[in-house]
Amino acid sequence: MKKLKNDTLLRALLRQPTEYTPVWLMRQAGRYLSEYNQTRARAGNFLALCKNPNFATEVTMQPLARFPLDAAILFSDILTIPDAMGLGLYFAEGEGPKFERPLREEREIYALSVPDPAVHLRYVIDAVSQIRGALNNQIPLIGFSGSPFTLACYMVEGCGGTDFRQIKTMLYQRPELLHHILNINAQAVIAYLNAQIESGAQAVMIFDTWGGALSHAAYREFSLHYINQIVAGLKREHNGQRIPSIIFTKGGGLWLEAIAESGCDAVGLDWTTDIAEARRRIGHKVSLQGNLDPAVLFAAPEIITTEVEKILTGYGHGHGHVFNLGHGISQFTPPESALVLVEAVHTLSRKYHQ
Question: Residue 79 belongs to a domain with what CATH number?
Answer without folding.
Answer: 3.20.20.210
